[in-house]
Each structure stands twice: as structure tokens, then as C-alpha cells.
Specification:
The complex is a heterodimer of chains A (375) and B (70). With 375 residues, chain A is α/β, with parallel strands linked by helices. Helices cover 46% and strands 7% of the residues of chain A. Chain A is built from 17 helices and 7 strands. The longest helix of chain A has 18 residues, at 189-206. Chain A is globular. Chain A starts with a helix and ends in a 5-residue tail after the last helix. Chain B is an all-alpha fold. Chain B has helices at residues 9-26, 44-61. Chain B is flat and about 40 Å long. The chains are: A alpha/beta (375), B mainly alpha (70). The A-B interface holds A 100, 104, 107-116, 118, 139-140, 143-144, 146, 194, 198 and B 19, 22-23, 25-29, 65-66, 68-70. The complex binds iron/sulfur cluster (2 copies).
């Protein structure tokens, strides 16, 4: 059996009805007609697909197709497995930023002593304890994307500020590694496993029972992929948005004005469709006095991806998707688009700079930290 | 600076070098393994001298921890 025939069986793509809902829903197909999930499946079923097909690397793995598929076919997973096979025989996507981010991930599989905690200013943290804050790649993004003012590290500083305000002094560590999300979706399972193993050992040695994430990719990867490869976790992955919504509910923290502001919310694909978190960010926004949330036509389950994923195949198509999204946000009458993912932030700020658009792009944690009521 | 055959090539190179330096630092790799020198195509002797000296420096640092398995 060929490698592709094998993964058709694993993912049961033979149930495909050939209806084309996937291609009709796909944000990439709309701007890059050569890419068609339906045709990739069809070609695979008729033994016509090749692992050298370069379009398999254009999928954003955003799950817009799979949530609508009447045959319940998990196309992103099909693509992920196909990339694994393709990578195995020497085909890869086109890495963005000359592969710098993939190199950083590879270095982290080694025995390195990182200095990634440079960003902690006056926040309170611990070396061991019940709660671990998994910061993710923000320290690296902060350095790489300074010229587009991505503000990646401000997000981490603000998450720490929020945690401290909730009475939590989390463990943070210089030995944290990339969660492996991108390695996984780049088809590099080996690299993913090396990174994941190091993270699991680190968390286990910290004694944490709860790991808090502010990055949707990290959360999704820990929650759904780590157990697949390493069995049940001995800690609970918690997304800060769920944590925060609870704390606001319990009255542990309060948010305050000043001023009226109309905003719109962009559901990151890993947060919404892949991790199922839609309500918490909206509840938090509703709690802030003076903030009015205007939804975009494509929101929640229909929210569009920010245009590129896995630091791969960033192209004029990505830019077109981002431009359309920012225009959609502006059309709601909102002056600010709020996201809750460091990568959405980077991708939108890059498009904003490229097209000189007049819309503010803000991380939800920056907004919340700014509106924290202090006694 | 600015005196570059590729117009602002050296300005860009310096920016890229500074970013790399910061990344190398937080990755925990010795900064002595990275160096920026300006050498024009007419300075062959100087190029050889710098290359020799930098090679000596790297040799004296020994293999980096990246060589070892994780
Ligand atoms: S939406 Fe599902 S059933 Fe329809 S063509 Fe796509 S994969 Fe096949
Ligand atoms: S996962 Fe997203 S980008 Fe990939 S085929 Fe489906 S809708 Fe298109």
C-alpha cells in the first residue's frame, strides 16, 4: 500500500461525498484557486496524488473546512499526516523568514541553557509551585518582529501582571522549549517529540498541577497532541481566557473604564475551532465598562484564519487574506481589532504596515491589563 | 557605514547582526561565536587575518553544546 493510501484509511477520507463544501469554505482556495482540499482528497482516492504536490503546504490547517464537512472528514489531520510522509521523503514547505524560526526550534531540541526570562520586570514568579505559566515563543517573536512593532513580549508581561493580580505567582522557566506545534504541522514529528519530551520533563520537575497558556497553539498542542504521543498528562492545561473569565465571575479582579470604545474580536483558529474557546473572550470584553463589541460577519465557528501558519508558505495569498480580514474588521465600525494569539498579532501588524491601514490591532491581554482595577 | 557597494547592504547587515546577536544570547549560545567585521573586496590581507584569528577563537572555545544530543 502506498503511504497516501495508508493515511486514507487512517483518516477515513474514503467517506468523502465530493460535495466541495471544503473548497467552497476555504480561505486559501478563494485567493489561490490552484489549491483545493476537495481535489487533493479526490486525487488521493484515485491514486493520482503525489507527495511532491507543493499545494499541500498551502493549507492553513485552520479547520474551516472540517467543521462544515458533511462526511466529518478531518482534512487538517489528513494534511498533517501527508506532510509527515512528504517530509520523510524529502519534501517540505517554503519556510518563512528564511527558516529562522525553524532553526530556533531545532536549537531548542538541544542541551541549551536559554536566557528567555529577560522580560520579567516587576512581576512575581517562582521556581517551583502548583501553577506553571507556559510563556511560549513570545521572547523570540519579540526580537524578530520588533520592526513591525509586534509587541510580543508586552503580552507575556501583561499575562503575568494579570496572574499576579489574581493572587497567582506562577512558575516560569528559562528551560521552557517551543511547544512543538509548528514542527508538528511542518510534518516534522521527530522534532515535535523531542521538544514535547523536554517540556514534559520540565513541568514534571516544577511540581505544577496546572499549566496556564496564553498562546492558543501551545494550549491546543498540549491538550490534544501531547496525550496522543505521551499518554495522559499529570497536570491540567488551562487557557488563561477560561481562567480569567472565572476570576472575573468570582469577583477576584475587576475591570474599569476609561472611555467608550468600539472593538471587534478575531477568533484565532487554534483558540476557536480547534480548542473550542469562543465565549470566554467575549465574556471578558463584555465585562469591561465602555467597551462595545461589534462582531464581524465571519466570527466564531466561521472566523477566518490570520493567513499563514507554521511559519511556512507566507505569500501574497496570505497578505490578501489578512487585508480582507482587516477591512472586514474596519467595516464593523470598530477602531480596534482584538486578538488573543501572538501570531495573529504579528500577521495582522505586518499586513497593517504593508498596506498602511487605519485600524488598531490589540492583544486581549494588553487590554485587560490596562483596565485592571487597582485598589 | 553607508559606504557599501550594495547601497545600504551594510546597514541591513548590521540590523540583521544585532537581531541575531540577541537571539543567540537568549538561546544560551556564547556570544563570542558570532562576530561582525567590515572588510571590503580590496582588503584580502585583512580578510585572511580576521578569518584566521576568528577560527582560533572558535577553536579555543571548543565544541558548542549544540553538538551534543539533547
Ligand atoms: S466537504 Fe467533506 S465530503 Fe465535501 S468534498 Fe470536502 S472532504 Fe469531501
Ligand atoms: S484547513 Fe483551512 S486552509 Fe486548509 S483546506 Fe481547510 S479551510 Fe482551507
Amino acid at each position: 500500500m502506498t503511504a497516501i493510501a495508508d493515511l486514507i484509511n487512517t483518516t477515513k477520507t474514503y467517506y468523502c461525498l465530493d460535495c466541495g463544501v471544503c473548497t467552497g469554505s476555504c480561505p486559501v482556495s478563494r485567493v489561490f484557486p490552484e489549491f483545493s482540499p476537495r481535489q487533493i482528497i479526490e486525487r488521493s482516492l484515485y491514486d493520482l496524488e503525489e507527495l511532491s504536490d507543493h499545494t499541500i503546504w498551502s493549507c492553513l490547517t485552520c479547520a474551516q473546512c472540517s467543521v462544515r464537512c458533511p462526511a466529518d472528514i478531518n482534512f487538517p489531520e489528513f494534511i498533517r499526516l501527508m506532510r509527515e510522509q512528504a517530509h520523510f521523503v524529502g519534501f517540505d514547505g517554503v519556510p518563512a523568514h528564511n527558516g529562522m524560526l525553524q532553526t530556533i526550534m531545532s536549537i531548542q531540541t538541544k542541551d541549551v541553557q536559554q536566557n528567555r526570562l529577560f522580560w520579567i520586570e516587576d512581576g512575581k514568579t517562582k521556581e517551583t509551585g502548583d501553577v506553571f505559566y507556559f510563556v511560549g515563543c513570545r521572547p523570540y517573536f519579540d526580537i524578530i518582529f520588533r520592526d513591525i512593532d509586534a509587541g510580543s513580549i508586552t503580552g507575556a508581561q501583561n499575562v503575568l501582571k494579570i496572574l499576579n493580580a489574581c493572587g497567582v505567582e506562577p512558575v516560569v522557566s528559562n528551560n521552557e522549549r517551543c511547544c512543538g506545534h509548528d514542527a508538528l504541522w511542518n510534518g516534522n514529528e521527530e522534532k515535535f517529540k523531542q521538544l514535547a519530551r523536554l517540556n514534559l520533563d520540565l513541568i514534571s520537575s516544577s511540581g505544577a498541577k496546572q499549566v496556564i497558556f496564553s498562546c492558543p497553539e501551545g494550549y491546543h498542542t498540549f491538550k490534544n497532541f501531547y496525550p496522543k504521543y505521551f499518554g495522559e498528562l499529570d497536570f491540567k492545561p488551562v487557557h488563561i481566557l477560561d481562567f480569567l473569565a472565572d476570576k472575573l465571575n468570582e469577583g477576584v479582579i475587576q475591570l474599569e473604564g476609561p472611555g467608550e470604545e468600539v472593538v471587534t474580536f478575531h477568533d484565532p483558529c487554534r483558540l476557536g475551532r480547534l480548542a473550542g474557546i469562543y465565549d470566554a473572550p467575549r465574556k471578558i470584553l463584555e465585562t469591561i465598562p465602555g467597551i462595545e463589541l461589534k462582531e464581524m460577519p465571519r466570527s466564531r465557528e466561521n472566523g477566518i484564519c490570520c493567513g499563514t501558519s507554521g511559519w511556512m508558505n507566507c505569500s501574497s495569498c496570505s497578505k490578501e487574506i489578512q487585508l480582507q480580514r482587516l477591512k472586514e474588521a474596519g467595516d464593523t465600525g470598530a477602531g480596534t481589532i482584538i486578538t488573543a494569539c501572538p501570531k495573529c498579532q504579528i500577521h495582522f501588524r505586518c499586513a497593517k504596515a504593508a498596506f498602511d491601514l487605519d485600524i488598531e490591532i490589540t492583544d486581549l491581554y494588553d487590554l485587560v491589563a490596562d483596565r485592571l482595577k487597582t485598589e | 557605514m553607508g559606504d557599501c557597494h550594495y547601497l545600504d547592504g551594510n546597514v541591513k547587515a548590521e540590523k540583521m547582526f544585532k537581531m541575531t546577536q540577541e537571539l543567540v544570547r537568549i538561546l544560551g549560545i556564547d556570544l563570542a561565536r558570532l562576530r561582525l567585521e567590515w572588510v571590503s573586496s580590496a582588503e584580502g590581507g585583512r580578510f585572511a587575518e580576521i578569518a584566521r584569528e576568528f577560527t582560533e577563537q572558535i577553536k579555543s572555545l571548543g565544541p558548542s553544546s549544540l553538538k551534543q544530543a539533547a
